[in-house]
Amino acid sequence: MKVIRFIISHSLTKKYIMALTGLFLITFLVVHLIGNLLLVIDTTGAKFNEYSSELKSSLFIQITEFILIFGFLFHVTDAAILYIKNKSARPVKYHVLKQGENIKLSSNFMYITGILILLFLFLHLYQFLFLGRILKSEILMHELVINAFKNPIYLFIYLIWLIFLFLHLKHAFQSAFQSLGLYHKKYTNIIKNIGSIYSFIVPAGFAFISIYLYLN
Amino acid sequence: MTINVKLKIWRQKNAQTKGKFETYVMENINIHLSFLELLDELNEKLIKNDEIPISFSHDCREGICGTCGLFINGRAHGHLRGVTTCQLHMQMFKDGETIVIEPWRARAFPVIKDLVVDRSALDKIIQAGGYMSANVGGAADADAIFITKGIADNAFAAAKCIGCGACVATCKNASAMLFTAAKVSHLAILPQGQCERMRRVRKMVDEMDRNSFGNCTNTYACEMDCPKNISIAHIARMNREYLRSVLT
Ligand code: FES
Questions:
Q1: Which of A81, B19, B74, B134 has a CA 20 to 30 Å removed from the CA of B148?
Q2: Cα separation of B81 and B90, whole Å?
């Protein structure tokens, strides 16, 4: 409790938590993408089903998932606290504010992209985690996924979601390193470039798989 | 050469009253005037007409004291990079342009009158630890302490902060991270600052948190509007220093 109070009442500790949970989620996305690639590698779905049932039973995965949920909740709660605090730090707004001139679009809209990602995430979790795992329905995961992506409306929303994810990640990647104090004349540019590549490749990968499933 | 401009200036009698914009037309303005001289001319006009002149802060008028600071057309110290308001000249504006002038806006910087804000929150951060308590005597011989040119330059780049508050003003979260970081970083780099290094960063950041500034979300707007071009690398150093002080 003491630790949580300490984290919440200090601006920089909140920042570290944001960065650490963010980096954890960033890593998770890669693992998730690799898992999803099975849908393309083996179109019969056998491998994917095997993988998803493995996920259900493995203790290691269950522990990681537990950490993931906590990390995610921390990330979102932290963002909400920051949002309220930051809004109240400027009670009177500027009449003219040319923010576009000095900051990048993606960094300005982290909250909005974050909320939009969160909203769709509920649907995503309901669709796959709840129906597939928690209800322990008879339908296999592969079938569930195919059914979802054969629906053009779902696919469309999913693709839009990925655009928001891209924008969110674009700022998030380098920002996490900066928050943890990892800035270096030489390496920060490399981190930025990796961040740009990552933020494009990961959503693009998910998009590719979903379109592939829709078309086949 | 002269230009005509329209000024939309925030007028507010005191901290208690609500302010509003007033419009003033300035004709035949010499383009070599500095921005503050433009306001001087306007004030002379106002005084002649028996009106109350506009209050604005200024002192050195050469970009070293950090007293002046206006939010001009949506940017702190105007759109020109690396200058203070007093170093901004009318040649940077177009003929017939409307210029909107506002005070720094932040909960931590309450308006005192018109364009003057109370920036003592920044002083409090310095008072919390932005110094060395050891008496180091008179200026030592430059060769007495061995540091490389790189370190000296880096510390100097941070020490250039004049405490104008542009970083707070321009940050969408009204965060004072760049200011605090510049001070922390400057002393953390130099050998003289080592003894109090851990204590300093804790005290200064905690004081910053107590003063209703917002939190940094790494938008880096501060770096773009800082008249002394202070890099966000110093913020990263402060993040590092604070993390170290929390963990040890
Ligand atoms: S008046 Fe001193 S910096 Fe502008």
A1: B134
A2: 15
